Amino acid sequence: MIEVLSIEIEGGFNVVYAPEEVCKMALDNHRAISALYIIGNSSKVAGRVRRNLNVRRAFTVHQLIEILLEAYEEVVFIEHDPVLFEDCDFPTLEDLIMLLRQIGIDRTVFYFSCRRDRVFDLITKMADRYVYVEREENGYYLVDASCNGLRQLFCPKNAQLTLEAFSG
Questions:
Q1: In which domain, by residue range, is 98 found?
Q2: Which of 16, 89, 122, 128 lies 20 to 30 Å from 147 when distance is taken between CA atoms?
């Protein structure tokens, strides 16, 4: 189980765009028995995570795919790194997205970023669920888009923040 902003996610391939503190909260508060955290060349969140996670680093899309093929953990966190996709062709990107969707059939994939770019935006279009979180003066504005529809919320700063993710 992951707790971050009053949205429940049950398995699947989930993409989250959120400020650093929200992403860190998701990593710190998960309650999965086993979790893998994959980072690329650089990370906005990794240095601040207190939770014990299996951490792997991918420097290319091909390494990311290899790590995912070997993964056995019930929750897979992947921090988006635009540098991984600099020399990536479309068929390889498509293979990655299909693999993320396949893993999401029986586990939870939590693909996240604190910064958006064109590749990240393309990945969001292929996800089972996309959660967009934007920091505002008095709290957080959230959009939760999935096959169940679109839900918009506002979470005040003083409210308890919970996003529960259950694997499988």
A1: 7-166
A2: 89
Tell me the pairing of strands 139-146 and 129-136: antiparallel
Q: How confident is the model over 24-74, as pLDDT tens digits? A: 888 887 778 888 999 988 887 766 666 678 889 999 999 999 999 999 999
Render the burial of 50-70: b for 16+ CB within 10 Å, e for the rest.
eeebeebebebbeebbebbee
For the chain, the domain total comes to 1
Tokens of residue 80, six digits: 């988006």
Task: Tell whether 1 is covered by a domain.
Answer: no
Confidence of residue 147 (pLDDT cuts 50, 70, 90): confident
Polymer length in residues for the chain? 168
Close Cβ partners of 133 (under 8 Å, ≥ 6 residues apart) = 5, 16, 17, 18, 19, 22, 140, 141, 142
Q: Is residue 133 part of a domain?
A: yes
> C-alpha angle with apex 128: 114 to 119, nearest 5 degrees?
45
Read off the tokens for 30.
Answer: 């998960």
Angle between helices 61-70 and 90-103 (to 10 degrees): 20
* Tally of CB atoms within 10 A around 91: 8
**CATH number, domain with residue 142:** 3.40.50.300
Distance of CA 116 to CAs 16, 22, 106, 113, 124, Å? 10, 15, 27, 7, 10
